[in-house]
Amino acid sequence: MRRKAPSSVIGEFLRRHQADIFCVQESKIPLSQLESRSEPLQCAHVEGYESFWSCCVDTSKRGFNGVTTYVKKGMVASADSKPLGSPDLDDQGRCVMTDHGEFVIFNVYVPAGGGQPLSYKMKFLNALRRAMKRQRDQYHKKVILAGDLNISHGKKDVHWASLCLDIDQLCQEVEQLPPGQLVEDLPEWKLQLAKSWPKIEATLQTKKVVPVQTTNPRTNQQFEKYRMTVQVDGKQVFLGGYEESPRHCEHYFDFGPSYYECDDSKERILAEKKNMIDVQTVAELMEKVAGITWEVEHQRKIAASYGKRSEVAPPRKWLNEILHKDGMVDAFRHFYPDAEGRFTCWDQFRNRRYENEGARIDYTIVDQSLLKYVQQGNVTALRCSCFGKHDPNSEEAALCATTANGRFQAVPFNGGGIVEATQEALDSQFGEKHTGMIYTPPSFSDHIATSLLLDDTCCSFGLTLQENDKTTRAAQPHKKLRTISSFFGAASVTTCLEGGVKKITGNSFTASSKPPPAKKKRTMHDFLAKPAIKGEAGAKSNVCESSNVATKLTASAMASSSTNFAKSSNDRKPLKNNGNSKKTAIPKNSIRNFFN
Predict the structure, then answer these.
(1) Binding-site residue ranges for Mg(2+)
(2) What positions are marked as the site Transition state stabilizer (predicted)?
């Protein structure tokens, strides 16, 4: 029995999700591994799919970023791994564009706000917007934007505790009451805040970051962390949590205005107003500095009535502009405008997924002209493991979906790693094709997938990949290594034979004498692969076990056994393969499924 290719685990994953196009962010696979075909799981070579890569070649960011798009064969015409037109942006491997005939897809991993200067993030976003506009104006393409934008858009896209209070505005409301309104008419918490804020501001002048040691109670291993301290009535008081660096501590308690320099205009632009502080931090300051406790339910009510997203944050303004000025539509919010708590990313280090304290920063955004082809799918509500138990738009339903109805367990803080999930919990990610979210397990990533369902009428299925196109070739570095037969067959050789002349050109020939029977071509894999061992077809791949690739939907995390998704135990049988490798005809009225 021939052993399955290591990449078959990815193929099985895509089959179960019924994915025609699959966008991955943070693939983190070096260009050199793809060119030498030494990438983990042979993940560039998935049967039935073409893969397109934009790898990070910036020497200062080696081992970071990377985006990959898998497309079913016949559904892609070309690709561009450097679509932004700027080496310092394209070299970081954050965007790959694929052409699908009627439309193009930009698969992106936008720089995070804390990792690099905001000026770089905005330079990337502005270049991306220009690239999308160029596809519309010059090539008459419709555009789909998919990936990790590292932007949370509206109030419903973040946990309530992350909503901000405009402290200066709230204090001003108390100090400058309109005629006829009494102080007693104001909510008590506003009066408390206005009275306490001068003391809080004075206390923050004593800020100091100090190193602290933490100990793992299971291993007794010690770690150096950092915390922010202030002086309250002559005593040292800790603020916030344990951070990895002094810079992180300072960032969380820097409430001054911030600016960035626009790369295009060189203009100094306001990025955040002074004293825009999240509800949870304000509550902590009120308790530790002013001695006034706001209970959690009270904080929630304050957030619901007065919490807001920053109105001046440049990335959020950019997202507003592509939605309102460029005519794009957030597919998720189009179908689920009232859904609460539907996040795509959580802080796994602090176990935030299990409390559903996250943010929605991953999107599928489409041009308005494509919206008529976008389908909700054969689902009555958002994916959730407890239909009928909660309102599908509620936070309770979102928590249920996020944790697979409690089957995904939090990581013990004393060590041990992510708790191994049951097969039932792992399989909860699979379901009907739809536009929405796919709740992949925590062992895959700190993100989950988003999905987009398109009607067949806007999709092309008979496209021929332009493999000789320069930009397309650059997006497929794994195809640079040719097979043995193509290597020897590339040259054109004319030889004299008894009874005639034989000219060999590639794999064709003409001869006056009868040619020998054609030999079956053998690939490089055929030459190097060891013979399959009987009974080994379902065994684990060593590449899979040793791979340390980290992606938003990591290839190695997709299957820790050969076909049993994210299960590491050897006692589980692989999923059955019916052995049918023939291409299935696509029904005329079928629906295509895209997700990132």
Answers:
(1) 26, 148, 150
(2) 150
Q: Any idea of the CA torsion for 352, 355, 357, 362, to the nearest 10 degrees?
A: 80
Beta strands in 391-546 (DSSP E): 436-438, 449-455, 492-497, 500-505, 508-511
Q: Which of 64, 323, 285 is nearest to 193 (CA)?
A: 285
pLDDT in tens, 354-375: 999 999 999 999 999 999 999 9
Cα 528 to chain centroid, rounded: 35
CB 499 within 8 A of CB 513: yes
The answer to whether the beta carbons of residues 195 and 289 sit under 8 Å apart is no
* Amino acid letter, 488: F
| pLDDT tens digits for range 293-313 | 999 999 999 999 999 999 899
Q: How many residues does the chain have?
A: 596
Which tokens hold the place of 169? 């505005």
The rounded mean pLDDT for the chain is: 83
pLDDT in tens, 68-106: 999 999 999 999 999 999 999 999 999 999 999 999 999
Q: CA gyration radius for the chain?
A: 28
Residue 382: CB atoms within 10 A of its CB come to 19
Angular region, 252: left φ>0, alpha ψ -120 to 50, beta rest: alpha
For residues 124 and 108, give the distance between their C-alpha atoms in angstroms, rounded to a whole number. Answer: 10
Q: Of the candidates 238, 233, 236, which has an alpha carbon nearest to the alpha carbon of residue 252?
A: 238
DSSP strand pairing (258-261 vs 449-455)? unpaired
Is a pLDDT exceeding 50 seen at residue 515? Answer: no
CA distances from 13 to 64, 563, 568 (A): 24, 8, 16
Give the domain ranges of the chain: 8-158+312-474+589-595, 162-306, 484-521
> 3-state DSSP call for residue 237?
strand
Annotated binding-site residue numbers: 26, 148, 150
- Please choose, from the candidates 18, 21, 38, the residue with its C-alpha nearest in 3D space to the C-alpha of residue 29: 38
Pairing relationship of beta strands 78-80 and 67-72 according to DSSP bridges: unpaired
263 falls in which pLDDT band (50, 70, 90)?
Answer: confident
User: What beta strand segments (E) does 304-426 contain?
Assistant: 328-330, 345-346, 358-359, 362-367, 374-375
Query: In the prediction, which pLDDT does 113 show?
Result: 76
Identify which of 63, 53, 119, 140 has the alpha carbon closest to the alpha carbon of residue 90. Answer: 53
